Fold:
Amino acid sequence: MSTHAKLKRNLATVKEVLAANPYLTHGWLRHQLFNRHENGLDRCVFPIGRKLLIDVDLFQEWMEQGCGQAEPPRRDYRYNVRR
Structure:
């Protein structure tokens, strides 16, 4: 058995992802990570303790598929009428 264990995934920290992609903002990525269970990003993120590691290849796929954006919920304005 080999003594060198190499991961097959291309993992990066949040800081590394932001440094490699200057068009992404810290606030946007933080929001996406916070809501990762709703937007599908959870399949790209591996929490290790308090640190989040991102699979760069899966993250790129997720971005190309529209960032997990679903149609926003429609508001029912009938209940927001001022009296």
User: Anything to note?
Assistant: Residues 39 and 72 are 12 Å apart (CA to CA).
